[in-house]
Design a protein that fits this description.
289 residues, alpha/beta, TIM Barrel, six-stranded parallel β-sheet, 11 helices
Length: 289
């Protein structure tokens, strides 16, 4: 594993059925390949693709992008959140779902690559539903068995503390658990409370300025650096729509490296801190290093 790692991306995803919006079907192969080539040139060696079952996952498509671009793509197992959960979740026990995830980690996804991440498993806005709790329970069992890391989804940063405390009740190594989208909480004190549980958090919606200005993300990261907390932070963008890509006028996958990192450096955030968030922390989470 060399270079930067983006810890929460989607190479292809399809949420268009539930969202009734074809922009949410990210299936523009040639444009994605072009952008991943650019990421490789910019020093990105690894992308964690957290597209799981029920999100239009396509492991063969992702493997082709990996082969063509030279960017290592870690693929994922698990289930997202309501209303995107597949029927399998409703008709299965916690143990059955756990065994399914374990199989994808140890044997492979649909006769393809082995899953290197359990995620993104999620909660709804302000609540963990019964079916979402079932997925969390299954993910805990699968992670305890396989030692695979877990990456969660919080809806607009809500339930991040609840997720962290729920996962902390298990025997999991919390240093290899990432609570996602915590930047979207927009609340630095709340973020500190989540970090205090021992988990890592994702500032993983970089560039999504309609939700939170990037200047605020920079300000929060600067404060966390001063408090010695950046050993528990990873970065990514979570692009999910065709309109997010450069060919449609969006910010594109390279925005984090080409635009956001210069903002961090301009704010005085040290190169060592950037290395922690984009190199060291991902290594620990993915490989226990």
């Amino acid at each position: 594993m060399s270079g930067y790692t983006l810890m929460h991306e989607h190479t292809t995803i399809d949420l268009s059925g539930v969202k009734k919006d074809m922009d949410c079907r990210l299936d523009c192969y040639d444009e994605t390949v072009k952008e991943y080539h650019r990421l490789h040139e910019l020093g990105v060696g690894t992308i964690v693709d957290v597209t799981c079952d029920g999100m239009g996952r396509n492991p063969e498509y992702v493997s082709r992008v990996e082969e063509e671009t030279g960017v290592h793509i870690v693929q994922s197992t698990g289930f997202y959140k309501e209303p995107f959960l597949p029927e399998r979740v409703y008709g299965s026990t916690v143990e059955q779902l756990a065994q399914w995830m374990i199989g994808e980690v140890t044997k492979g996804i649909e006769n393809g690559p082995k899953a290197g991440m359990i995620g993104e498993i999620g909660t709804s806005k302000d609540v963990m539903t019964d079916e979402e709790r079932k997925v969390f329970d299954a993910a805990i069992l699968a992670a305890e068995e396989t030692k695979a890391p877990i990456y969660t989804h919080t809806t607009l940063g809500t339930c991040g503390l609840e997720q962290a405390l729920y996962l902390r009740r298990s025997s999991l190594d919390l240093s290899r658990v990432v609570i996602g989208h915590m930047d979207l909480s927009g609340d630095l004190d709340y973020i500190r409370r989540v970090l205090a549980t021992g988990v890592t958090i994702g500032f993983d919606t970089v560039g999504k300025k309609a939700y939170l200005p990037d200047e605020t993300r920079v300000e929060f990261l600067k404060a966390l650096e001063a408090e010695g907390m950046l050993g528990q932070v990873v970065l990514s963008m979570d692009l999910t729509r065709k309109s997010h890509l450069a060919y449609k006028g969006g910010i594109g996958y390279s925005y984090l490296i080409e635009t956001f990192l210069p903002m961090l450096k301009e704010a005085g955030i040290a190169e060592e801190s950037i290395q922690k968030m984009l190199v060291d922390n991902p290594k620990r989470i993915l490989y226990g290093e």
